[in-house]
Amino acid sequence: MPQPLLEAQEVTVRFGGLTAVDAVSATFMPGELVGIIGPNGAGKTTFFNAISGVTQPTSGRLAVLGQQLAGQGPHRFARNGLARTFQTPRTFADMSVRDNIAFGLKFAGKRPRKYVFWGEETGVPWVLRTADSILGLIGLNAQADVPAAAITPSQQRLLEIGMALATRPRMLLLDEVAAGLTENEVEEMARLIRRLRDELDLTVVWIEHAVTTLLRHVERVIVLHQGKKIADGTPREVVRNPEVIEAYLGDEMNDETSKTEGAEA
Ligand SMILES: Nc1ncnc2c1ncn2[C@@H]1O[C@H](COP(=O)(O)OP(=O)(O)OP(=O)(O)O)[C@@H](O)[C@H]1O
Ligand SMILES: [Mg+2]
């Protein structure tokens, strides 16, 4: 059995009297594409913050490739191959799209890797070696010289994914990268996410409210509700789970169905 890429054990995050993440355990294996769903305020982002070192868990253990990292800062997590996007994109508005990616590449250079001694980037997929090849991968070549502030919101989301990829991660955490996109754009985003996993051998964890699209593309889905993990299984299993339907899916799927019906009417 291969070693888990990331293992969270009983991770809890409290803000004063509020338990935002309540003893959540989850294991992510290399190459998995896992979705995280749940109502607003369920603790999805806080869980991401905990497993990427942005927020210190109140208690619990976090191992990245067997190494205990709970309590360490985000840079330690990044050095161990974790990259993430933020629910509100964090790009450098005045810098060009290409320079935003170049910033990520510079950061990646700080991660010690054996290829440093060989004077070449052996072991890094060719597509992640230069800013321009990353721009090609995310489809932003035409915007390379434009300031990040001037691109569309959906392009901003792609740029943030590109910046995360530039750190040459093993694991990519995506927080609502399809929020606010049109239905076609959501589908394109889902395809890109799958390609990243398939072609770059990444482990991808993807939070999204566009449940029907997400469930079509992931192999496993974790459901959070009021800070607790209430389900963890294949999309087929999870959509039949009465607790999940009650807490979330009933409303969410009806919303999406009525949206589609509305669009067709
Ligand atoms: N820094 C913070 N200080 C205090 N409370 C917080 C903080 N961050 C999040 N919370 C609270 O923790 C709970 C979980 O929030 P979180 O943002 O993780 O939910 P979420 O599942 O990502 O929701 P959404 O789908 O709306 O993004 C919420 O009640 C939120 O108000
Ligand atoms: Mg969130």
TrEMBL record:
Keywords from UniProt, A to Z, are: ATP-binding, Cell membrane, Membrane, Nucleotide-binding, Transport
What SMART domains does this protein's entry cite? AAA (SM00382)
Which Pfam families does the record match to this protein? ABC_tran, BCA_ABC_TP_C
GO MF annotation list: ATP binding
- Superkingdom of origin: Bacteria
Task: Check the record and name the PROSITE patterns matching this protein.
Answer: ABC_TRANSPORTER_2
Q: Which InterPro entries match?
A: AAA+_ATPase, ABC_AA/LPS_Transport, ABC_transporter-like_ATP-bd, BCA_ABC_TP_C, P-loop_NTPase
Domain (ABC transporter): residue spans on this chain: 6-251
Question: PANTHER family, alphabetically?
Answer: AMINO ACID ABC TRANSPORTER ATP-BINDING PROTEIN, CONSERVED COMPONENT OF ABC TRANSPORTER FOR NATURAL AMINO ACIDS-RELATED
Q: What's the protein here called?
A: ABC transporter ATP-binding protein
- Identify the taxonomic lineage of the organism of origin: Bacteria, Pseudomonadati, Pseudomonadota, Betaproteobacteria, Burkholderiales
